[in-house]
Structures are given as C-alpha cells and as structure tokens.
Amino acid sequence: MPDDESMLTPAMEAAIGLEGDPVTVQINPEIVRRLVEALEEEDEAVLAAVNSDDPHAEIPAYALITASTRQRQLTVPDAPRRGLMAADEWRIFGPIHMGDELTITPRIADIQERIGGRVGHSLFVHHEWVYRNQAGDEVARVRRTITLFKEKHSGE
Fold first, then answer.
1. pLDDT tens readout for residues 24-56
2. What is the CATH number of domain 10-149?
3. What is the number of alpha carbons within 13 Å of residue 116 lying toward its C-beta?
C-alpha cells in the first residue's frame, strides 16, 4: 500500500532556521594535548604548537572535537522516534587557537522528506552548529544529518 501522506507538519516547517541557545566553551590545552597524544600525532609543527607555552598557538582543526561535546541537537517538533545518524560534515573557515573561547549556536538547518525507497518513509533532519571565536569570526560549521523513520522497516 503506497504511503504518500507527508510527515512534515507545520510545526516542523516552522522550526527550520530557528536558532537555539548558544553555549560558550574554551579550547582547553590539556584536553587538546590528550587528544593529540591519543591520535599519536607525528607532525612536528602540531606537536610544537600543542606543547608550547603560547596560550594562543594555532592548533589543528580536528581539535574542535574537544568542544563538540557541548553541541546539543534541537528538538524537532512532531518527529518520529525511530532514527539514526546518517552523516556529519565539518567545514573549517579559520584558524583555531589554544585558549579560544568559542560560541556554538545550534539550529535546524533543513528538513527533507523521502517517500518510499528501501527504508520506507523518512525525514532527513539537518542540524547545524556555528562556531564563532571571541572576535565573532565564524571558524567552523558542523552539519549533522539524522534520518527519522515513520515506522520500523524490514531492512531489506
């Protein structure tokens, strides 16, 4: 039986583009050092920057992952409960420095609907977080796609 009734509700459509409360985090030198060590980084320039006493040393963009634990997805109104993370995209626009104070602002960037297909009726919710440094410069943007399913599918 075809399922062509839209799952998008007016509340969902109204949530697209709305920003949530920003959170502020500071790039913690000790946590960055631990990450670099865990990744067994071998780049001498990276190791020198991370181990320097310069509180403003430029660090690799992947160190943003230490701040991403503060990213919170906004609640999508009327959304189905079944879902999974489909993708993450990180775009870096500027340098990240030890000690930077970053403001992370969440929003629901878009919602796309797919009717039919292998996994059935689904929504693709694109969450986005903008990272701005203490000068107000956008240094990164993270986009996460969550796929939500109308009902349990067979997996075929």
1. 999 988 888 888 889 898 888 888 888 887 878
2. 3.10.129.10
3. 3
